Amino acid sequence: MTETSCPISKITLSGEEISKYILIHGERCTPSEMTAVQELQTYIGQSCGAKLSIASDTMAASPYEIVVGTTNRRQDLDVSYTTLGDDGFYLQVKESKLYIAGSPVRGTLYGVYTFLEDYLGWRWFAPGVERTIFSGDVALPDSIDAKFIPAVEYRDAYWYSTFNENWAVKLKVNSTIKNRECSRSIREEWGGGIGYGGPSFVHTFNVFMPISEYFAEHPEYYALHDGRRNGEHLYTQLCLSHPDVLRIMTNKVLNCLEEEPDAGIVSVSQDDSYLSDSYCRCDACERIHQEEGSPMGSLLRFVNAIADAVKEHYPKVIIDTLAYQHTFTPPKITKPRDNVAIRICTYSPVISRMHEEQPHIKESLEIWSNICSRIYIWDYTTNFSDYMVTFPNFHTLLPNMRLFVANNAKGIFEQGNYQSISGEFGELRTYLLAQLMWKPDMTESDYERHMNEFLQGYYGPGWHFIRQFIDDVQDIVLQSEPGARGTPAEILPPDLFDLEQAKSWWDQAEALSCNEHTRERIRRSRLQLLHWELFADGHADDAERDHYYKMARDFGITALNEGAAVPEPKTC
Protein backbone atom coordinates (compact mmCIF):
# COMPACT_ATOMS: atom_id res chain seq x y z
CA MET A 1 0.00 0.00 0.00
CA THR A 2 1.30 3.44 -0.97
CA GLU A 3 -0.34 6.42 0.67
CA THR A 4 0.02 9.51 -1.51
CA SER A 5 -2.80 11.70 -0.30
CA CYS A 6 -0.83 14.86 -1.07
CA PRO A 7 0.89 14.17 -4.42
CA ILE A 8 3.21 16.70 -5.99
CA SER A 9 1.73 18.16 -9.16
CA LYS A 10 4.97 19.32 -10.78
CA ILE A 11 8.70 19.13 -10.05
CA THR A 12 11.12 21.59 -11.62
CA LEU A 13 14.89 21.44 -11.71
CA SER A 14 16.89 24.51 -12.74
CA GLY A 15 13.76 26.00 -14.26
CA GLU A 16 12.92 22.90 -16.32
CA GLU A 17 10.13 20.43 -15.61
CA ILE A 18 11.41 17.10 -14.38
CA SER A 19 9.55 15.23 -17.15
CA LYS A 20 12.24 16.36 -19.63
CA TYR A 21 14.94 14.49 -17.75
CA ILE A 22 16.58 11.12 -18.39
CA LEU A 23 17.95 8.90 -15.61
CA ILE A 24 21.56 7.94 -16.42
CA HIS A 25 23.39 4.98 -14.89
CA GLY A 26 26.83 3.53 -15.59
CA GLU A 27 27.13 0.89 -18.27
CA ARG A 28 28.79 -1.36 -15.70
CA CYS A 29 26.81 -0.21 -12.69
CA THR A 30 26.47 -2.41 -9.63
CA PRO A 31 23.16 -4.12 -8.82
CA SER A 32 22.45 -1.60 -6.04
CA GLU A 33 23.12 1.33 -8.39
CA MET A 34 20.59 -0.10 -10.84
CA THR A 35 18.11 -0.44 -7.96
CA ALA A 36 18.81 3.20 -7.09
CA VAL A 37 17.89 4.30 -10.65
CA GLN A 38 14.73 2.20 -10.64
CA GLU A 39 13.66 3.46 -7.21
CA LEU A 40 14.17 7.05 -8.35
CA GLN A 41 12.05 6.42 -11.42
CA THR A 42 9.30 4.80 -9.31
CA TYR A 43 9.03 7.51 -6.68
CA ILE A 44 9.30 10.44 -9.07
CA GLY A 45 6.51 8.77 -11.03
CA GLN A 46 4.37 8.35 -7.91
CA SER A 47 5.05 11.95 -6.92
CA CYS A 48 3.93 13.67 -10.09
CA GLY A 49 3.03 11.08 -12.71
CA ALA A 50 6.14 11.58 -14.85
CA LYS A 51 7.81 8.28 -15.76
CA LEU A 52 11.38 9.16 -16.66
CA SER A 53 13.37 7.15 -19.18
CA ILE A 54 16.40 5.17 -18.02
CA ALA A 55 19.59 4.99 -20.12
CA SER A 56 23.22 4.04 -19.65
CA ASP A 57 26.07 6.49 -19.86
CA THR A 58 26.89 5.23 -23.36
CA MET A 59 24.12 7.55 -24.54
CA ALA A 60 25.21 10.95 -25.81
CA ALA A 61 25.10 13.56 -23.08
CA SER A 62 21.98 15.65 -22.73
CA PRO A 63 21.52 18.87 -20.73
CA TYR A 64 18.58 17.21 -18.94
CA GLU A 65 20.06 14.35 -16.95
CA ILE A 66 19.80 12.93 -13.47
CA VAL A 67 23.08 11.06 -13.16
CA VAL A 68 23.01 8.18 -10.68
CA GLY A 69 26.06 6.34 -9.36
CA THR A 70 29.40 5.73 -11.00
CA THR A 71 29.25 6.89 -14.62
CA ASN A 72 31.47 8.40 -17.27
CA ARG A 73 29.90 11.73 -16.25
CA ARG A 74 31.69 11.65 -12.90
CA GLN A 75 34.49 13.82 -14.28
CA ASP A 76 31.94 16.62 -14.32
CA LEU A 77 32.10 16.64 -10.51
CA ASP A 78 34.89 17.97 -8.33
CA VAL A 79 34.53 15.34 -5.61
CA SER A 80 36.58 12.68 -3.85
CA TYR A 81 35.04 9.22 -3.72
CA THR A 82 37.78 7.65 -1.61
CA THR A 83 36.41 9.11 1.63
CA LEU A 84 32.83 7.86 1.22
CA GLY A 85 33.21 4.32 2.59
CA ASP A 86 30.38 1.97 1.67
CA ASP A 87 27.51 4.25 2.70
CA GLY A 88 28.49 7.83 1.79
CA PHE A 89 27.33 9.92 -1.17
CA TYR A 90 27.22 13.32 -2.86
CA LEU A 91 24.17 15.25 -4.04
CA GLN A 92 24.97 18.02 -6.51
CA VAL A 93 23.18 20.21 -9.01
CA LYS A 94 25.58 21.51 -11.64
CA GLU A 95 24.19 23.64 -14.44
CA SER A 96 20.94 21.85 -15.35
CA LYS A 97 21.93 18.36 -14.14
CA LEU A 98 21.34 16.56 -10.87
CA TYR A 99 24.03 14.15 -9.68
CA ILE A 100 23.46 11.47 -7.05
CA ALA A 101 26.87 9.88 -6.75
CA GLY A 102 28.08 7.66 -3.96
CA SER A 103 29.65 4.39 -3.05
CA PRO A 104 28.62 1.65 -5.49
CA VAL A 105 27.93 -0.60 -2.49
CA ARG A 106 25.14 1.28 -0.67
CA GLY A 107 26.01 4.97 -0.88
CA THR A 108 24.32 5.74 -4.20
CA LEU A 109 21.13 3.96 -3.12
CA TYR A 110 21.14 5.85 0.19
CA GLY A 111 21.73 9.06 -1.78
CA VAL A 112 18.59 8.41 -3.83
CA TYR A 113 16.48 7.80 -0.71
CA THR A 114 17.90 10.93 0.94
CA PHE A 115 17.09 12.99 -2.15
CA LEU A 116 13.54 11.62 -2.16
CA GLU A 117 13.15 12.41 1.54
CA ASP A 118 14.70 15.87 1.59
CA TYR A 119 13.53 17.26 -1.74
CA LEU A 120 10.35 15.33 -2.65
CA GLY A 121 9.02 14.73 0.86
CA TRP A 122 8.90 10.93 0.84
CA ARG A 123 8.54 9.14 4.16
CA TRP A 124 8.71 5.39 4.83
CA PHE A 125 6.99 5.05 8.19
CA ALA A 126 6.65 1.26 8.39
CA PRO A 127 6.47 -1.66 5.97
CA GLY A 128 3.55 -0.87 3.67
CA VAL A 129 3.05 2.66 5.05
CA GLU A 130 4.72 5.25 2.85
CA ARG A 131 3.73 8.60 1.42
CA THR A 132 4.96 12.01 0.29
CA ILE A 133 4.19 14.82 2.70
CA PHE A 134 4.68 17.48 0.01
CA SER A 135 1.89 18.82 -2.21
CA GLY A 136 1.55 21.32 -5.01
CA ASP A 137 4.60 22.27 -7.08
CA VAL A 138 8.16 21.53 -5.92
CA ALA A 139 11.11 23.50 -7.30
CA LEU A 140 14.47 21.88 -6.59
CA PRO A 141 17.23 24.36 -5.71
CA ASP A 142 19.37 25.64 -8.58
CA SER A 143 22.41 24.61 -6.57
CA ILE A 144 22.77 21.59 -4.31
CA ASP A 145 26.20 20.62 -3.05
CA ALA A 146 25.92 18.13 -0.19
CA LYS A 147 28.19 15.36 1.01
CA PHE A 148 27.09 12.84 3.61
CA ILE A 149 29.08 10.13 5.37
CA PRO A 150 27.25 8.50 8.30
CA ALA A 151 28.94 8.76 11.68
CA VAL A 152 27.74 5.25 12.60
CA GLU A 153 29.14 2.52 10.33
CA TYR A 154 26.97 -0.37 11.63
CA ARG A 155 23.29 0.42 12.21
CA ASP A 156 20.68 -2.01 13.46
CA ALA A 157 17.22 -1.19 14.82
CA TYR A 158 16.52 -4.73 16.01
CA TRP A 159 12.74 -4.42 15.95
CA TYR A 160 10.21 -6.49 14.06
CA SER A 161 9.62 -3.92 11.30
CA THR A 162 13.22 -4.01 10.13
CA PHE A 163 13.02 -7.65 9.13
CA ASN A 164 11.29 -6.35 6.03
CA GLU A 165 14.31 -6.03 3.74
CA ASN A 166 12.95 -3.31 1.47
CA TRP A 167 11.85 -1.06 4.31
CA ALA A 168 15.05 -1.58 6.31
CA VAL A 169 17.12 -0.37 3.36
CA LYS A 170 14.98 2.75 2.97
CA LEU A 171 15.69 3.56 6.63
CA LYS A 172 19.42 2.82 6.05
CA VAL A 173 19.59 -0.11 8.45
CA ASN A 174 22.66 -1.89 7.12
CA SER A 175 23.05 -4.94 9.35
CA THR A 176 22.35 -8.50 8.30
CA ILE A 177 21.35 -10.94 11.01
CA LYS A 178 21.45 -14.70 11.34
CA ASN A 179 19.39 -15.80 14.28
CA ARG A 180 17.40 -18.85 15.28
CA GLU A 181 14.19 -16.84 15.72
CA CYS A 182 14.49 -14.18 13.03
CA SER A 183 16.97 -13.14 10.39
CA ARG A 184 17.54 -10.22 8.09
CA SER A 185 19.23 -10.68 4.75
CA ILE A 186 19.91 -7.73 2.45
CA ARG A 187 20.50 -8.82 -1.11
CA GLU A 188 23.19 -7.35 -3.32
CA GLU A 189 20.66 -5.39 -5.36
CA TRP A 190 19.67 -3.60 -2.13
CA GLY A 191 23.26 -2.88 -1.20
CA GLY A 192 24.01 -5.91 0.94
CA GLY A 193 24.82 -5.38 4.59
CA ILE A 194 27.39 -5.71 7.33
CA GLY A 195 27.09 -9.27 8.49
CA TYR A 196 28.49 -11.47 11.22
CA GLY A 197 30.24 -14.65 10.21
CA GLY A 198 29.59 -17.88 12.02
CA PRO A 199 26.37 -19.38 13.30
CA SER A 200 25.45 -16.48 15.61
CA PHE A 201 26.03 -12.75 16.03
CA VAL A 202 26.30 -12.86 19.84
CA HIS A 203 26.82 -15.26 22.79
CA THR A 204 29.07 -17.59 20.84
CA PHE A 205 31.05 -19.55 23.43
CA ASN A 206 28.70 -22.51 23.47
CA VAL A 207 28.08 -22.14 19.74
CA PHE A 208 31.76 -22.59 18.91
CA MET A 209 32.55 -24.97 21.79
CA PRO A 210 29.32 -26.80 22.68
CA ILE A 211 29.18 -28.31 26.13
CA SER A 212 27.56 -31.35 24.55
CA GLU A 213 30.66 -31.91 22.41
CA TYR A 214 33.53 -31.15 24.80
CA PHE A 215 32.47 -31.28 28.45
CA ALA A 216 32.42 -35.04 29.02
CA GLU A 217 36.10 -35.48 28.08
CA HIS A 218 37.37 -31.99 28.93
CA PRO A 219 35.46 -30.35 31.78
CA GLU A 220 38.60 -28.25 32.37
CA TYR A 221 37.68 -26.26 29.24
CA TYR A 222 34.78 -24.71 31.14
CA ALA A 223 34.55 -22.23 33.99
CA LEU A 224 35.40 -23.24 37.54
CA HIS A 225 32.66 -21.65 39.61
CA ASP A 226 31.82 -22.35 43.27
CA GLY A 227 34.43 -25.11 43.29
CA ARG A 228 33.00 -27.07 40.35
CA ARG A 229 32.75 -26.98 36.57
CA ASN A 230 29.17 -26.93 35.37
CA GLY A 231 28.13 -28.81 32.25
CA GLU A 232 24.89 -26.90 31.72
CA HIS A 233 24.52 -24.28 29.00
CA LEU A 234 23.59 -20.79 30.29
CA TYR A 235 25.17 -21.55 33.65
CA THR A 236 28.80 -21.65 32.65
CA GLN A 237 31.43 -19.93 30.51
CA LEU A 238 34.77 -21.01 29.09
CA CYS A 239 38.05 -21.18 30.97
CA LEU A 240 39.77 -18.41 29.02
CA SER A 241 43.27 -19.07 30.34
CA HIS A 242 43.35 -22.65 29.05
CA PRO A 243 45.62 -22.88 25.97
CA ASP A 244 43.50 -25.60 24.33
CA VAL A 245 40.41 -23.39 24.54
CA LEU A 246 42.28 -20.58 22.76
CA ARG A 247 43.56 -22.98 20.09
CA ILE A 248 40.13 -24.51 19.45
CA MET A 249 38.32 -21.18 19.35
CA THR A 250 40.92 -19.63 17.05
CA ASN A 251 40.59 -22.52 14.61
CA LYS A 252 36.80 -22.34 14.76
CA VAL A 253 36.85 -18.63 13.91
CA LEU A 254 39.33 -19.11 11.07
CA ASN A 255 37.30 -22.01 9.66
CA CYS A 256 34.18 -19.87 9.83
CA LEU A 257 35.90 -17.12 7.82
CA GLU A 258 37.15 -19.61 5.27
CA GLU A 259 33.56 -20.72 4.73
CA GLU A 260 32.21 -17.16 4.73
CA PRO A 261 34.89 -14.94 3.16
CA ASP A 262 32.47 -12.00 2.86
CA ALA A 263 31.84 -11.82 6.61
CA GLY A 264 32.89 -8.50 8.10
CA ILE A 265 32.60 -9.35 11.80
CA VAL A 266 32.85 -12.43 13.98
CA SER A 267 31.55 -12.46 17.53
CA VAL A 268 33.71 -14.10 20.20
CA SER A 269 31.53 -13.41 23.21
CA GLN A 270 30.42 -14.86 26.51
CA ASP A 271 27.17 -16.75 26.83
CA ASP A 272 24.06 -15.13 28.22
CA SER A 273 24.11 -16.76 31.61
CA TYR A 274 21.39 -16.31 34.19
CA LEU A 275 24.29 -16.05 36.64
CA SER A 276 25.88 -12.63 36.25
CA ASP A 277 29.12 -13.91 37.83
CA SER A 278 29.47 -17.22 35.98
CA TYR A 279 33.05 -16.58 34.85
CA CYS A 280 35.96 -18.90 35.60
CA ARG A 281 37.63 -18.73 39.04
CA CYS A 282 40.55 -21.08 38.36
CA ASP A 283 43.94 -19.85 39.64
CA ALA A 284 45.17 -18.74 36.21
CA CYS A 285 41.99 -16.82 35.36
CA GLU A 286 41.75 -15.25 38.81
CA ARG A 287 45.36 -14.05 38.59
CA ILE A 288 44.43 -12.16 35.41
CA HIS A 289 41.26 -10.76 36.98
CA GLN A 290 43.26 -9.43 39.93
CA GLU A 291 45.85 -7.83 37.64
CA GLU A 292 43.20 -6.21 35.46
CA GLY A 293 40.67 -5.32 38.15
CA SER A 294 37.89 -6.99 36.17
CA PRO A 295 36.90 -10.37 34.70
CA MET A 296 37.00 -8.52 31.37
CA GLY A 297 40.77 -8.95 31.63
CA SER A 298 40.77 -12.66 30.81
CA LEU A 299 38.17 -12.18 28.06
CA LEU A 300 39.98 -9.32 26.33
CA ARG A 301 43.36 -11.09 26.39
CA PHE A 302 41.65 -14.13 24.88
CA VAL A 303 39.86 -12.07 22.20
CA ASN A 304 43.03 -10.11 21.36
CA ALA A 305 44.92 -13.35 20.74
CA ILE A 306 42.22 -14.54 18.34
CA ALA A 307 42.15 -11.12 16.66
CA ASP A 308 45.92 -11.31 16.07
CA ALA A 309 45.56 -14.69 14.35
CA VAL A 310 42.64 -13.47 12.25
CA LYS A 311 44.45 -10.31 11.15
CA GLU A 312 47.20 -12.35 9.50
CA HIS A 313 44.69 -13.89 7.07
CA TYR A 314 41.74 -11.47 7.11
CA PRO A 315 43.05 -7.97 7.85
CA LYS A 316 39.65 -6.28 7.38
CA VAL A 317 37.65 -8.57 9.65
CA ILE A 318 36.55 -7.27 13.06
CA ILE A 319 36.38 -9.51 16.14
CA ASP A 320 33.50 -8.39 18.33
CA THR A 321 33.04 -9.11 22.02
CA LEU A 322 30.72 -7.96 24.80
CA ALA A 323 31.15 -5.65 27.75
CA TYR A 324 28.24 -7.23 29.57
CA GLN A 325 27.41 -8.47 33.07
CA HIS A 326 30.73 -9.55 34.62
CA THR A 327 32.77 -8.11 31.71
CA PHE A 328 31.15 -4.65 31.81
CA THR A 329 33.99 -3.01 33.76
CA PRO A 330 36.98 -2.17 31.52
CA PRO A 331 40.35 -3.76 32.39
CA LYS A 332 43.16 -1.67 33.86
CA ILE A 333 46.00 -2.92 31.67
CA THR A 334 45.00 -4.64 28.43
CA LYS A 335 43.70 -2.57 25.52
CA PRO A 336 41.71 -3.94 22.58
CA ARG A 337 43.54 -4.55 19.31
CA ASP A 338 42.60 -2.23 16.46
CA ASN A 339 40.57 -5.05 14.84
CA VAL A 340 38.54 -5.66 18.00
CA ALA A 341 35.14 -4.07 18.64
CA ILE A 342 33.93 -3.76 22.22
CA ARG A 343 30.13 -3.98 22.27
CA ILE A 344 28.99 -2.18 25.41
CA CYS A 345 25.61 -3.35 26.72
CA THR A 346 23.83 -0.36 28.22
CA TYR A 347 21.16 -1.84 30.44
CA SER A 348 19.28 0.93 32.25
CA PRO A 349 17.26 -0.12 35.31
CA VAL A 350 15.04 2.99 35.17
CA ILE A 351 12.94 4.05 32.15
CA SER A 352 13.13 7.78 32.80
CA ARG A 353 16.92 8.03 33.15
CA MET A 354 19.05 8.94 30.20
CA HIS A 355 22.32 7.01 30.00
CA GLU A 356 24.39 10.10 30.75
CA GLU A 357 22.58 10.30 34.12
CA GLN A 358 23.66 6.79 35.05
CA PRO A 359 27.30 6.66 36.20
CA HIS A 360 27.86 2.97 35.42
CA ILE A 361 27.05 3.56 31.74
CA LYS A 362 28.60 7.00 31.28
CA GLU A 363 31.87 6.13 32.98
CA SER A 364 32.22 2.84 31.14
CA LEU A 365 31.69 4.58 27.79
CA GLU A 366 34.27 7.22 28.62
CA ILE A 367 36.91 4.71 29.71
CA TRP A 368 36.38 2.43 26.72
CA SER A 369 36.41 5.38 24.29
CA ASN A 370 39.91 6.29 25.51
CA ILE A 371 41.37 2.84 24.88
CA CYS A 372 39.29 1.41 22.01
CA SER A 373 39.11 2.64 18.43
CA ARG A 374 35.92 0.75 17.61
CA ILE A 375 33.10 0.82 20.14
CA TYR A 376 29.82 -0.86 19.33
CA ILE A 377 26.68 -0.42 21.42
CA TRP A 378 24.02 -2.93 22.41
CA ASP A 379 21.16 -0.76 23.67
CA TYR A 380 17.83 -1.89 25.17
CA THR A 381 14.69 -0.01 24.15
CA THR A 382 11.65 -2.00 25.32
CA ASN A 383 10.27 -3.85 28.32
CA PHE A 384 11.48 -7.39 27.65
CA SER A 385 9.24 -8.92 30.31
CA ASP A 386 6.12 -7.32 28.80
CA TYR A 387 6.10 -6.05 25.21
CA MET A 388 2.55 -4.71 25.53
CA VAL A 389 3.08 -2.41 28.49
CA THR A 390 3.36 1.31 27.73
CA PHE A 391 7.08 2.14 27.70
CA PRO A 392 7.58 5.94 27.76
CA ASN A 393 11.27 6.25 26.82
CA PHE A 394 11.00 8.61 23.84
CA HIS A 395 12.70 11.45 25.74
CA THR A 396 15.85 9.31 26.17
CA LEU A 397 16.48 8.22 22.57
CA LEU A 398 18.10 11.39 21.22
CA PRO A 399 20.40 12.14 24.20
CA ASN A 400 21.42 8.49 24.39
CA MET A 401 22.38 8.47 20.72
CA ARG A 402 24.38 11.66 21.15
CA LEU A 403 26.22 10.12 24.10
CA PHE A 404 27.13 7.03 22.08
CA VAL A 405 28.56 9.00 19.17
CA ALA A 406 30.36 11.46 21.46
CA ASN A 407 32.20 8.42 22.86
CA ASN A 408 33.34 7.13 19.46
CA ALA A 409 30.61 4.53 18.92
CA LYS A 410 30.99 3.18 15.38
CA GLY A 411 28.23 0.61 15.57
CA ILE A 412 24.83 0.76 17.28
CA PHE A 413 22.39 -2.09 17.86
CA GLU A 414 19.03 -0.99 19.28
CA GLN A 415 17.27 -4.07 20.62
CA GLY A 416 13.52 -4.00 21.01
CA ASN A 417 10.57 -6.26 20.31
CA TYR A 418 12.09 -8.20 17.44
CA GLN A 419 9.59 -11.07 17.67
CA SER A 420 6.25 -9.51 16.78
CA ILE A 421 4.36 -6.58 15.37
CA SER A 422 3.67 -4.16 18.21
CA GLY A 423 0.59 -3.50 20.30
CA GLU A 424 2.31 -0.46 21.77
CA PHE A 425 4.46 2.10 19.89
CA GLY A 426 7.05 -0.29 18.46
CA GLU A 427 6.75 1.00 14.90
CA LEU A 428 7.21 4.63 16.00
CA ARG A 429 10.22 3.74 18.12
CA THR A 430 11.79 1.77 15.27
CA TYR A 431 11.37 4.70 12.87
CA LEU A 432 12.90 7.18 15.31
CA LEU A 433 15.84 4.92 16.15
CA ALA A 434 16.65 4.41 12.47
CA GLN A 435 16.54 8.17 11.88
CA LEU A 436 18.80 8.77 14.87
CA MET A 437 21.40 6.21 13.84
CA TRP A 438 21.59 7.84 10.42
CA LYS A 439 21.77 11.40 11.79
CA PRO A 440 22.71 11.28 15.48
CA ASP A 441 23.49 15.00 15.45
CA MET A 442 19.90 16.00 14.68
CA THR A 443 18.41 18.82 16.75
CA GLU A 444 15.60 18.46 19.25
CA SER A 445 13.26 20.19 16.78
CA ASP A 446 14.21 17.71 14.04
CA TYR A 447 13.52 14.84 16.44
CA GLU A 448 10.10 16.27 17.30
CA ARG A 449 9.38 16.77 13.60
CA HIS A 450 10.20 13.13 12.86
CA MET A 451 7.89 11.99 15.65
CA ASN A 452 5.00 14.20 14.55
CA GLU A 453 5.40 13.27 10.88
CA PHE A 454 5.25 9.61 11.82
CA LEU A 455 2.20 10.01 14.03
CA GLN A 456 0.34 11.91 11.33
CA GLY A 457 1.35 9.54 8.54
CA TYR A 458 0.74 6.34 10.51
CA TYR A 459 -2.38 7.22 12.54
CA GLY A 460 -4.06 9.84 10.37
CA PRO A 461 -5.84 13.15 11.16
CA GLY A 462 -6.37 12.39 14.85
CA TRP A 463 -2.65 11.91 15.45
CA HIS A 464 -2.34 14.88 17.83
CA PHE A 465 -4.57 13.10 20.37
CA ILE A 466 -2.12 10.19 20.36
CA ARG A 467 0.69 12.68 20.81
CA GLN A 468 -1.14 14.02 23.86
CA PHE A 469 -1.26 10.49 25.28
CA ILE A 470 2.48 10.03 24.63
CA ASP A 471 3.33 13.33 26.33
CA ASP A 472 1.09 12.56 29.29
CA VAL A 473 2.54 9.13 30.04
CA GLN A 474 6.05 10.50 29.54
CA ASP A 475 5.38 13.17 32.19
CA ILE A 476 4.11 10.47 34.53
CA VAL A 477 7.17 8.29 34.12
CA LEU A 478 9.43 11.29 34.82
CA GLN A 479 7.59 11.75 38.12
CA SER A 480 7.54 8.11 39.19
CA GLU A 481 10.85 6.70 37.78
CA PRO A 482 9.70 3.09 37.35
CA GLY A 483 12.00 0.21 36.51
CA ALA A 484 12.65 -0.79 32.90
CA ARG A 485 10.86 -4.12 33.49
CA GLY A 486 8.03 -2.58 35.46
CA THR A 487 4.45 -3.80 35.64
CA PRO A 488 1.65 -1.64 34.17
CA ALA A 489 0.86 -0.13 37.57
CA GLU A 490 4.53 0.55 38.33
CA ILE A 491 5.06 2.36 35.04
CA LEU A 492 1.77 4.31 35.17
CA PRO A 493 0.67 4.46 38.82
CA PRO A 494 -3.13 4.65 39.16
CA ASP A 495 -2.93 7.81 41.29
CA LEU A 496 -1.07 9.62 38.48
CA PHE A 497 -2.64 8.07 35.39
CA ASP A 498 -6.07 9.32 34.28
CA LEU A 499 -7.57 6.33 32.46
CA GLU A 500 -10.71 8.14 31.35
CA GLN A 501 -8.73 11.00 29.83
CA ALA A 502 -6.50 8.50 28.02
CA LYS A 503 -9.55 6.67 26.65
CA SER A 504 -10.95 9.98 25.42
CA TRP A 505 -7.76 10.75 23.48
CA TRP A 506 -7.76 7.37 21.78
CA ASP A 507 -11.51 7.62 21.06
CA GLN A 508 -11.01 10.98 19.37
CA ALA A 509 -8.05 9.73 17.35
CA GLU A 510 -10.10 6.78 16.08
CA ALA A 511 -13.14 8.95 15.33
CA LEU A 512 -10.99 11.09 13.02
CA SER A 513 -9.33 8.16 11.22
CA CYS A 514 -9.61 8.62 7.48
CA ASN A 515 -9.58 4.97 6.36
CA GLU A 516 -9.60 1.41 7.63
CA HIS A 517 -5.79 1.21 7.54
CA THR A 518 -5.25 4.05 10.02
CA ARG A 519 -8.18 2.84 12.12
CA GLU A 520 -6.65 -0.61 12.46
CA ARG A 521 -3.27 0.84 13.43
CA ILE A 522 -4.93 3.02 16.08
CA ARG A 523 -6.82 0.06 17.50
CA ARG A 524 -3.74 -2.13 17.58
CA SER A 525 -1.59 0.49 19.36
CA ARG A 526 -4.47 1.15 21.75
CA LEU A 527 -4.11 -2.39 23.09
CA GLN A 528 -1.51 -0.96 25.50
CA LEU A 529 -4.33 1.01 27.15
CA LEU A 530 -6.56 -2.07 27.47
CA HIS A 531 -3.52 -3.89 28.83
CA TRP A 532 -3.20 -1.29 31.62
CA GLU A 533 -6.92 -1.38 32.32
CA LEU A 534 -6.97 -5.17 32.67
CA PHE A 535 -3.65 -5.86 34.35
CA ALA A 536 -2.71 -2.80 36.42
CA ASP A 537 -4.62 -4.13 39.43
CA GLY A 538 -3.86 -7.80 38.67
CA HIS A 539 -7.53 -8.77 38.89
CA ALA A 540 -8.45 -9.55 35.27
CA ASP A 541 -10.54 -12.71 35.10
CA ASP A 542 -10.06 -15.52 32.60
CA ALA A 543 -12.71 -14.23 30.21
CA GLU A 544 -11.16 -10.75 30.14
CA ARG A 545 -7.70 -12.17 29.56
CA ASP A 546 -8.95 -14.40 26.76
CA HIS A 547 -10.74 -11.51 25.09
CA TYR A 548 -7.53 -9.48 25.25
CA TYR A 549 -5.41 -12.33 23.86
CA LYS A 550 -7.88 -12.89 21.03
CA MET A 551 -7.71 -9.22 20.08
CA ALA A 552 -3.92 -9.36 20.09
CA ARG A 553 -3.82 -12.45 17.91
CA ASP A 554 -6.39 -10.97 15.51
CA PHE A 555 -4.04 -8.00 15.04
CA GLY A 556 -1.15 -10.35 14.26
CA ILE A 557 0.64 -9.94 17.59
CA THR A 558 2.42 -13.17 18.46
CA ALA A 559 4.72 -12.44 21.44
CA LEU A 560 3.84 -11.29 24.97
CA ASN A 561 7.49 -10.99 25.96
CA GLU A 562 10.89 -12.36 25.01
CA GLY A 563 10.04 -15.80 26.33
CA ALA A 564 6.28 -16.22 25.87
CA ALA A 565 3.89 -16.30 22.94
CA VAL A 566 0.39 -14.83 23.04
CA PRO A 567 -1.67 -17.78 24.30
CA GLU A 568 -4.60 -19.29 22.51
CA PRO A 569 -7.84 -18.04 24.10
CA LYS A 570 -9.59 -20.75 26.14
CA THR A 571 -13.03 -19.29 26.71
CA CYS A 572 -13.64 -17.24 23.54
TrEMBL record:
For this protein, the record's InterPro entries field holds: DUF4838, Glyco_hydro_67_aGlcAse_N, Hex-like_dom2
Which Gene3D superfamilies is this protein grouped with? Chitobiase/beta-hexosaminidase domain 2-like
What superkingdom heads the lineage?
A: Bacteria
Q: Which residues form the Alpha glucuronidase N-terminal domain?
A: 25-114
The major lineage groups are: Bacteria, Bacillati, Bacillota, Bacilli, Bacillales
Q: What are the alphabetically sorted keywords of the record?
A: Hydrolase
User: Pfam family of this protein, just one?
Assistant: Glyco_hydro_67N
UniProt keyword Zinc-finger present: no
Q: Does the keyword Transcription regulation apply?
A: no
Q: What is this protein called?
A: DUF4838 domain-containing protein
